[in-house]
Write a structure and sequence with these properties.
Layout: H1 12-37, H2 52-57, H3 60-72, H4 81-96, H5 102-133, H6 136-167
Helix pairs in contact: 1-4, 3-5, 4-5
């Protein structure tokens, strides 16, 4: 009986794509586990904790100005995207290795957290600078957009909770 033909080896691009996909899957699983274990429910929240609701409330022009502030201030710039990609590849290699190096994995995660904290600090400073340059009318318009976003997220949360109650 003839042996079935073997599949040719994966290309480098396919291997990279596989590991990136694996990393994203691990990230999603981690987020879901974190939500379940912390008792939190995924979905919209009525909070302005963190920068994202505030950045979404900026107008397109204000968002452009925000980006320009960060680009103009060299000390606000964080690590290069290449460094982040390299760290991501190292994390994927560690996860997929036959022997898991927990200490190295933890060190890379700590490095990743520090880089994220640096980006958050830069964003906080840039947002403060942008708001301090705005007129009262522009700041009030920003506050109105932010308030509307919060109201919308509360309505969406209630709809989700009402849907869960009817399923029980």
């Amino acid at each position: 009986m003839s042996e079935p033909s073997r599949m040719p080896g994966w290309s480098r691009g396919r291997t990279i794509l596989f590991y990136l996909s694996l990393g994203l899957n691990i990230l999603v699983i981690g987020v879901l586990l974190g939500a379940v274990l912390s008792g939190g429910r995924p979905g919209p929240r009525a909070t302005i904790d963190g920068p994202f609701p505030m950045l979404r409330a900026l107008s397109d022009e204000e968002r452009t100005q925000f980006t320009q502030i960060i680009r103009a201030n060299r000390e606000m710039r964080t690590e290069r995207p290449v460094k982040s990609l390299q760290r991501g590849r190292k994390l994927l290699e560690l996860v997929s290795a036959e022997k898991f190096d927990a200490a190295r994995f933890e060190a890379l995660l700590k490095e990743q957290s520090q880089a994220a904290a640096g980006r958050a600090d830069a964003g906080r400073v840039a947002l403060t600078m942008l708001l301090s340059r705005m007129s009262l009318a522009d700041r009030q318009a920003f506050a109105s957009r932010l308030e509307e976003m919060l109201k919308r997220s509360v309505r969406e949360r209630r709809k989700q909770e009402d849907g869960r109650r009817t399923l029980r």
